[in-house]
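Changelog note: in this version the structure field was regenerated for every chain. One regenerated record is shown below for reference.
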Amino acid sequence: MSWNWLGWLLWLLALVFLGFVIHYIRVHQLMLIAKTGHRFEKGLFLKYVVLLVVALAWLGTMLYFTAFRKVASTSDQVTVSYSYDPLQLTNDNTNDYYYVRANHSGSGDHHVVSYTYWTTTKKVTVGAMNASIADSNDILSSAAVTYPWNESKLRKEDQATSRAFAAKITVRYKNNLINGLGLRANKEADEHTLIRVPAANLIEQAKNGE
């Protein structure tokens, strides 16, 4: 069972408590005005402040764990898995063979929006935000180097496929209490696909959708 149930429960209680605090302040202010004709009473005001601080601190803590807590791919709060696929040459019925197609935006600065490559069993398209190409002597691209790759396995793949493979790293949150507080338990934290090609001339440049 996922620990996310705890996060949902605490979120619900935090919102209920905030609603209670707002209702409590409203009712007691009306009672104060009705009984004394005054709008301010020091003891009551301090109680309001304490209740609001607790409610906002509770909500702030939940918001931090849910939206703002940064977890590195090397953290003990995540698990890492890898997959490897040899690339297949393709030519799309042309005379130019390539391993990967860089799909560029059809407007603006024509930046790369995705990459398409072929393996022995499937055609794969990945977003450019979660993929990068290494076409030099370095196995890792500048974008991929920040991830905890199994570099000995990458070198073996590099030799076995003549520098033509796709390696995917998937980072997933562990199913524990801390991740459950942020509703992240068992969910994917990050992924990156490293597309390795022997040379830059084996990358086809195309407008998105071609």
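Spot check on this record: Residues 166 and 195 are 5 Å apart (CA to CA). The chain has two domains: 4-68, 78-207.
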